Amino acid sequence: MNNVAYKVREQDQQQKQQKTVRQVVRKTKRKITVGEKIVYSGFVALMLFGSVQIISNQSSLYSISEEVQSLDGKIDKQEAKNNELKLQVTELSAYDRIWTKAKELGLKLNENNVKVVND
C-alpha cells in the first residue's frame, strides 16, 4: 500500500507541474513593427499612384482617339467635296461647252489669231 500512495502522490505532483507548465506557455500576438508599417504603406501608396496614372493615361488616349476619329470623318467629307469639284471642273472645261458659250456671246473662231500653249 505504501507503494500505491507513493505513486498517487507522484502522479498528483506531475499533474500540478503539467498544469503550471501549461499556464506559462502563452501565445502572444505578433505585432507589426514600425518598419513593416512603413513598407506596407509605401507599397499601397505606389499601387494607388500607379493605378491613377494608368487610368489617367487611358482617359487621355480615349479622348485623343475620339478626336482623331472625328478628324478622319472631316477629312473624308472634304475629300468627297474635292472630288465633286474636280468632276465639275472637268465638266465645265470641256471643249464643246466652251465653244457653245463662246458662240452664245458672239465670238468667232479666227485661226490666224489662235496660239497653242503647251503645259
TrEMBL record:
Chief subcellular location: membrane
Cellular component terms per the entry's GO annotation: cell division site; plasma membrane
Transmembrane in keyword set: yes
Pfam families: DivIC (PF04977)
Keyword Metal-binding: no
Membrane spanning residue stretches: 38-56
GO biological process: FtsZ-dependent cytokinesis
Superkingdom as given in the UniProt entry: Bacteria
InterPro entries: Cell_div_FtsL, FtsL/DivIC
Cellular localization per UniProt: Cell membrane
Record keywords, A-Z: Cell cycle, Cell division, Cell membrane, Coiled coil, Membrane, Transmembrane, Transmembrane helix
Residue stretches in coiled coil: 68-95
Membrane-related topology note: Single-pass type II membrane protein
HAMAP family per UniProt: FtsL (MF_00910)
Function: Essential cell division protein.
The family this protein is said to belong to: Belongs to the FtsL family.
Protein name stated in the entry: Cell division protein FtsL
Organism expressing this protein natively: Priestia aryabhattai (Bacillus aryabhattai)
Gene that specifies this protein: ftsL
